[in-house]
Specification:
The protein is α+β, with helices and mostly antiparallel strands. It folds into 2 domains: 93 residues; 186 residues, Sandwich (Jelly Rolls), CATH 2.60.120.260. It is built from 5 helices and 9 strands, in the order H-H-H-E-H-E-E-E-E-E-E-E-E-H. Strands 1, 3, 4, 5, 6, 7 and 9 form a 7-stranded antiparallel beta sheet that branches. Strand 4 and strand 5 form a beta hairpin. The longest helix is centred in the first third of the chain and has 54 residues.
């Protein structure tokens, strides 16, 4: 698709150059005929030039229309990729249930059955939240000013630490503006990541009796270092608001190495127009040092 886009742009440039050359030749011939030719041919020459310019303008307009249609199609395809990846992941899970799905996990005792390498009390830490903006209700202008100053000098969103701490009572979450956000987590050690769990409160304990602020489409990435421009894609997933509060997702692309940094990227929520709430993120796998015999 990128190749076609570049080819279209190259064709437009060549076409514009051709138009300029033709117009220059025609104007040169017109000046020549005006100075040295018969005056009765001037009106006919101008009519010919007008006709050629009209035809060239129509051709350039058609190229612009094709370019706009191509750009619109590329944007539409890009917006549907996360949903397609999530659907593929669900189909794979249905056909090939993972070892965690084959053995039912008790939601009320989840942390005693699957190790969480993103737990703050075990040594994990939030190191970056990118351009994500927290959703806060400011009680005074002073608190608003303090939050603005802290956001200018520190990219570590303090509220994001809620997603790696135990406890998921209503309101004990990381709330950020809109439906898109991200958080980079430094795990307690190098981990061969095999899965991720996302948690949200169920509707019956929500004060509003609905959870439209719950994340929907999200992605997990592995980073070599902070702000790594080429992260490893573990896969794209979809949190089901009608499912269990804690939902496990096995990685779609098993990594060839262990990672100490992972980034969760939220692409959408379940309809809330103001903010999105993430209650808990767990990262599962095996410590690299254990697999190497250390």
């Amino acid at each position: 698709m990128d190749y076609e886009y570049e080819q279209e742009g190259c064709f437009r440039n060549v076409f514009k150059s051709f138009v300029c050359v033709v117009l220059s030749l025609l104007l040169g011939l017109q000046v020549y005929s005006y100075l040295w030719g018969a005056s009765e041919n001037i009106d006919g020459d101008f009519s010919d030039i007008k006709y050629v310019i009209t035809q060239l303008s129509h051709g350039l307009t058609e190229i612009n229309r094709k370019h706009e249609r191509l750009q619109t199609e590329m944007e539409r395809i890009s917006s549907t990729l996360p949903a397609v990846a999530a659907a593929a992941g669900r189909a794979k899970e249905a056909l090939e249930p993972s070892r965690y799905q084959r053995h039912a996990v008790d939601v009320h005792d989840y942390d005693r059955q699957i190790a969480d390498f993103a737990l703050e009390t075990a040594g994990a830490k939030i190191v970056d939240t990118g351009n994500t903006v927290e959703h806060l209700i400011y009680e005074s202008p002073v608190s608003w000013a303090l939050h603005v100053l802290s956001a200018m000098f520190c990219r570590e969103c303090l509220g994001a630490t809620a997603i790696i701490r135990p406890g998921t009572l209503p309101g004990e979450c990381w709330a950020f503006r809109g439906s898109k956000g991200e958080a980079t987590i430094r795990l307690l050690d190098n981990v061969h990541v095999t899965g991720v769990s996302l948690e949200h409160i169920p509707p019956h304990i929500s004060p509003t009796k609905e959870i439209s602020s719950a994340p929907r489409l999200f992605q997990l990435e592995g980073l070599e270092f902070r702000n790594d421009p080429y992260p490893y894609d573990f896969g794209s997933f979809e949190y089901d608001k009608e499912g269990k509060p804690i939902q496990f997702f096995e990685v779609q692309n098993p990594p060839p190495k262990a990672y100490n940094l992972v980034r969760i990227r939220i692409f959408s929520n379940w309809g809330h127009s103001v903010y999105t709430c993430v209650y808990r993120v767990r990262v599962h796998g095996e410590l690299a040092r254990k697999q190497n015999g250390y």
